[in-house]
Predict the 3D structure of the following.
Amino acid sequence: MSKKIKQIAIYGKGGIGKSTTTSNLSAALSKMGFKVMQFGCDPKSDSTNTLRDGTYIPTVLDTLREKASVDAHDVVFKGFNGIYCVEAGGPAPGVGCAGRGIITAVELFKQQRIFEELDLDYVIYDVLGDVVCGGFAVPIREGIAQHVFTVSSSDFMSVYAANNLFKGIQKYSKSGGALLGGVIANSINAGYSREIIDDFVSQTDTQVVEYVPRSITVTQCELQGKTTIEAAPDSEQAKVYTSLAKKIAEHEESKTPSPLGVTELQQWAAGWSDKLLEQAQGKVAVGEAI
Amino acid sequence: MGYLDYKEAPKRESRLKACIAYGGTLCGLAKKAGCGCMDDGERSFSQGSICLMLPGLAMINSLPDNVTLLHGAVGCGVCSHSQNANVRSGGFARTGSVKDALWLSTALNEADVISGGEAKLRRAIIKADRLYRSRTITVVTGCVPGIIGDDVESVVREIQPEIAARLILVHCEGFKTKIWATAYDAVYHGLGRSVLDDPPERPSLIENEQEQIRLDYLRGRTVNLFNVSSMGRGDELELTRLLNSLDLDVNIFPVFTKPEEMYKVKYAALSISTCPTHDDYFLKYLKEEHAIPYIIKHMPIGIENTNAWLRDVAKFFGKEDVGERIIQNEQRQLELALTEYRAFFKGKTVFVSAGEFRALATAYLLHELGFDIVGIRSFHHDEFANVEYEKLQSVSEHDFTVNIANVQSYEEANLLRKLKPDLFLGHWNGNSTPSKMGIATHVIYNTGINYIGYKGAYDLARRLYKQLKNPAFNKNISKYTKLPYRESWYGENPFKYIKGGEVDA
């Protein structure tokens, strides 16, 4: 009887830090002794760069373009600490259909039963957060990920994207799809950032799994092509990522989120922008940056 | 976990290393395939192809009391119109009543593609159910839902409780694979996941031992006969006759079989294929999940092929001597009947073009009738056919041309101009190329007439005799029509546009 592989999907608005978060999460989990595969589902195919010293690996879809059939083994590469790295890949900007690319790449791995063969503990899908078509929702659908976590900062655009994602999760929740584990609050430094996120998760019936501050350490490590866990294992930031990994490892129960409707979301944002205006006008103490 | 646990069947490029581009000779192919280095070639020029939809729908449209619901653009599945003739005649031959195929389309338009087609599919299923009250509704997905990522599985699963018909789901996205034979796997996959449940039964209060013994006895002498959509009722009856004479009962599956009776396929002693390339996917499933052994050798077209096919079945049931007596009896009668034709056929050259197994089996029969084979075109190739090429190699006096092509009429025209056969056998619409060149033609399959078994061998001989006695019609056609190829093309190597798949021209 094979062990239950925990499959997690990490979504987040483009640029919000989900690949950084995912790579560090994978690195931290692998240091805890787990066998991890990170499956990048962004057409930019840069999810696993920092697990591979900054290099790009050949993608599933590039390989499919060259050969009629792909052996999944040919597109799995080992990275930091033995983490298995896969990039789905996708079309160049402006052409083709990235969503179909995700469908094809994920199905290929399922059919060739690679996860069981590699005896994995975790498969982590790093997915573009603007779930713009059916294909990008494939990791949420029944049979793929069980838990979804979304990376969001307190910027309204990323909160809107998270809310949209919750709508997608809600749609599939009735047919055995993945449920929401919570929000990973990224680039949270002080002041209102934390409150904005906390308020949002309470309105949408979910939780914050971890607060990850903005940190120059992360940037420095990324410039070296490495995760913080690898290049700065004793730093404060590495401790945050390790804590995140522990929480995710222990996480069992995910829920159906309650996304806000369009008007509710507008009103919520309007309420917060009043507070932010007060801060900008000096009514709030200086030094509490967002 | 088997393939049927997944939503879709894998494409044949991955599962079977199938191939659709090769140009060379019989010996070349046998050598390449034998040493396992048969890679698919690519064509730098392609004239037409085959979409999965066509063979897939040929099977699905035959299912009695079924509505086929195509989920995709409105033009997909238009082949159903031409298949309707077969549905009407095949249905009539089996039930005595003429019924059209029922096919609908969700006809996805631009708005549907952008916002997703699931809602429309849901409405279409409900409407089909209320309008037709059929036993089954087969949802067939075309390319469009595959691209936009419609979760058809969920729609079908969620709506099933609301409708009376049983839903069958077949994934037939044409862009996924160039090996059109994947369609058979796709249809079997859909059937295997939906219609194999046993009908609900009231459990009996008392165990009836005698009944159980009777059922086990019957099961031990029942075989599954896997038919194909290119076989007619006459061919089915011929094979049934031969199996009955071995004292076996026959379940015919899946073409024209009632979906509510398909569960019976799980209760047989043996599964027999009539076309290995068609059936391997499902036969393996039956073996793995229901422990039903299978025979997947020889297509029973031709005398030796039919003998071998029957011998294998007889051997399985320990009835070799009965089998031999049947074979001798049939062959004796057949040889007598064929004498008048053999002399006439001797030395006439023939070119054969069809789906792989049919092409090869028919070529062998033609050789038995005295013809000289000068060329074979198979619409695709996979490993099951290697043994057929070896059979032909062992009986042919000389090497001949072999071309693996998913149609590609330009290659055919070039080959025919060079080889100038006396006779051409191909699919009915494919025969237009040779007829326009003045070559006598005959259809290589037609569900209204016989090709299979001993009767088929005789019937074919009779028809070919008639055709060759007076080939004037095609000769006249060639005087007044032309093919669209430039004269210079006929001087070129026919396999000029195949890269990587050729051995020697």
